[in-house]
Design brief:
Structural class: alpha+beta
Largest sheet: 4 strands, antiparallel
Radius of gyration: 14 Å
Order of helices and strands: EHEEHHEEE
Helix content: 25-40%
Number of strands: 6
Strand content: 25-35%
Distance between the termini: 17 Å
Shape: globular
C-alpha cells in the first residue's frame, strides 16, 4: 500500500496553564483560530479541528501539516498565539495514511 506522510500536531492543555481574564481568553482564542486559518490559506496545513469525547482531556485538537519536516511543523505550531500564551502545548509526530485519502475539497493533496 502506498502511504503519504503528514506532520501531525496534537494540541494539548498543559497541566498548569496560566490564568487570564475572560476578555484575554476570548482574544487568545480568536487569534488562535485566525492563525490556524492563515496556515490553511497558506497551504501549510490540510485540516485542523478540536477534539470531543476524548479519553485524555488534555488533548484539545489536531492539526495536519504538510510542510515536509517535523521541525518546520513544530516551528509553525509553536507560533500559534494560544501556544505562545501557554494555553496550549504541542506534540509533533509523523502520521501516515493511504495515498490520496487526505484531501482538501476540490484540491487533492
Amino acid at each position: 500500500m502506498a502511504l503519504e506522510s503528514f506532520e501531525l500536531v496534537i494540541l494539548r492543555r498543559p497541566p498548569d496553564p496560566p490564568g487570564y481574564d475572560e476578555a484575554t481568553l476570548d482574544r487568545i482564542q480568536e487569534e488562535h483560530l485566525a492563525y490556524l486559518a492563515s496556515l490553511r490559506d497558506a497551504g501549510h496545513t490540510v485540516s485542523h479541528g478540536p477534539l470531543r469525547d476524548q479519553p485524555d482531556e488534555s488533548m484539545r485538537g489536531l492539526v495536519f501539516f504538510r510542510v515536509g519536516s517535523l521541525a518546520e511543523a513544530r516551528s509553525l505550531a509553536e507560533a500559534d498565539p494560544a501556544v505562545r500564551a501557554g494555553r496550549l502545548a504541542v506534540d509533533v509526530m509523523t502520521w501516515l495514511c493511504p495515498a490520496g485519502t487526505m484531501a482538501r475539497p476540490g484540491t487533492p493533496v
